[in-house]
Amino acid sequence: MNEITTGTHVTDAEPALACARAPVGLLAELTHRCPLQCPYCSNPLELERSNVELTTAEWQDVIRQAAALGILQIHLSGGEPTARKDLEDIVKVAAEVGLYTNLITAGVLLTKERLKGLADLGLDHVQLSIQDVDAANADRIAAYKGGAAKKHEVAGWVKELGLPLTLNAPLHRQNIDSLERIIEYAVEIGAGRLEVAHIQYYAWALKNRAALMPTREAFMKTVDIVNRAKERLKGILVIDFVVPDYYAKFPKPCMGGWGRGVMNITPSGRVLPCHAAESLPGMSFDNVRDRKLAEIWLDGDAFNKFRGTDWMKEPCKSCSRREIDFGGCRCQAFALTGDAANTDPACSLSPLHDEWAKVAGLESHETPPDFIYRRVGGAKVVEPAGE
Amino acid sequence: MAETVQPIRPTRLMVAEGSILLLPRHIKLRHDAGRDAWVLLAPERVFKPDDTAVEVLKLCDGKRTVGDIASDLAERFQAPRDVILADIVQMLQDLADKGVVKS
Ligand code: SF4
Ligand code: SF4
After folding, report:
1. Ligand 2 atom showing the smallest separation from residue A319 Cα
2. Mutate to test the pocket of ligand 2, among A325, A339, A350, A353 (most ligand atoms within 8 A of CB)
3. Are A27 and A75 in contact (CB under 8 A)?
4. pTM for the model
5. In 3-state terms, what secondary structure has residue B51?
6. pLDDT number for residue A308
7. Which CATH class is domain B22-97?
8. pLDDT at residue A333 above 50?
9. Whose CB has fewer CB within 10 Å in chain A, the N or C terminal residue?
């Protein structure tokens, strides 16, 4: 969720609104199960298995707590959230307690009846991801035959049911040439919003970086295409564009700032400040099975560890952007420097930036290696049977 | 993938004095008691409207024109109507471009 320019009288939720006592958004990873195998999936390499997932009643309780805490929006995500047979029971409670309910789905498991049922229960918005507009390439990227065609059908149902639709298209070197067609496709299917997000290199994407990283030239071309499309499609399609860290000057505020804008709950109930936080060593994460959500948010060690700016070192400590990007990503800082409190190497002010960014230039000019597909166990381990 | 393409392309809504606007079903203007603030909930966005915006949005009921809203506010806040009108047309255009109001 990157920011957009805002006009008169209405601004994006400001910091005070975000962290006074509750985050604005809850990212609920209902399950890590997913029939697709995108090589850039943001789920951790160690996928949680279905037998550890929170039960229906546990999710419903978490959702009630979230609303009471002051969370405004819930993003039902995964894995593939529709892989849960009790999604209806979860959406029902979210709508009842007044959370703005957003379904983030790959679509392939949906039926029209099920979608209608969810809409009737009060689902507010659908975000549908696509891999490419070229169906063969899309199915190759997701390692799922017929996926693109099914998604197209789902997009039609979403519109038919009068639900607002965001199309999400992760961008990388193996679909980057389709960008103009992706934008056109979003307009054709009646999406109100298009998220064109260059891949962020964590988790599976980091493993597949050489297969995904575009060249700087290719990236610059996308900036130009998006800027022109934004102008041309003003009032027709809202386009949100996320640039890759490797080609940016300053890092992004990860999750809108650690312990500030969003909280993330994993399928087994662990509460994380960001979905990659489990890659940091020496951190302990509370579980909704053991503690109340409000306590975890306000007092949890993991949330307090990098909240605000007190933990910062130079150059962040005295930098004027410290409350804009909050020093970038802790996980990226740790991965490269061994200390999560250092400046994210994605920042041009980091002493390690040049060395880090050079990788992109090198890898993107080589022949891309084969994908390492996202699978439980990283290879071909069979998942335990359903709930 | 072009079989079910809708023939009519959407066009940009241009806000004017005569426009009659409303919030689409999926946009929610809500007072958040805990924060003591009005919030505007939109797909994957939360906006914070200021006092003027809140007043205007409450009046976007699908019946009143933008001109009616300007007159209403001009009277309530004892301000020149043309100044208010210009201001809210700009604001509503911005919101229309973000998909927050429709005609
Ligand atoms: S990124 Fe792909 S593999 Fe990962 S959850 Fe989404 S659809 Fe499934
Ligand atoms: S030095 Fe730190 S706070 Fe300043 S721009 Fe870089 S990451 Fe952001």
Report:
1. 4
2. A325
3. yes
4. 0.89
5. helix
6. 82
7. mainly alpha
8. yes
9. C
Q: Which neighbouring-strand residues pair with A264?
A: A27, A272
Q: How many residues does chain A have?
A: 387
Q: How far is the CA of A175 from the centre of ligand 1 (A)?
A: 16
Residue A367 CB neighbour total at 10 angstroms: 6
Q: What is the pLDDT of residues A32-54, one digit of tens each?
A: 999 999 999 888 888 888 889 99
| Contact status of B35 with chain A (Cβ, < 8 Å) | yes
Q: Domain limits of chain B?
A: 22-97
Judge contact between A66 and A101, C-beta under 8 A.
no
Let me know: does A203 contact A41? Beta carbons within 8 Å. Answer: yes
Q: What is the pLDDT of residues A264-290, one digit of tens each?
A: 999 999 999 988 888 888 888 999 999
Q: For residues A280 and A384, which has the higher predicted lDDT (pLDDT)?
A: A280
Using alpha carbons only, give the angle A102, A40, A361 rounded to the nearest 5 degrees. 130
Per-residue pLDDT tens over the stretch A127-168: 999 999 999 999 999 899 999 999 999 999 999 999 999 999
Q: Show Cβ contacts of residue A291 under 8 Å, excluding neighbours closer than 6 positions.
A: A300
What is the structure's pLDDT at A254? 77
Give yes or no for residue A102 CB within 6 A of ligand 1.
no
pLDDT tier, A377 (very low <50, low <70, confident <90, very high otherwise): low
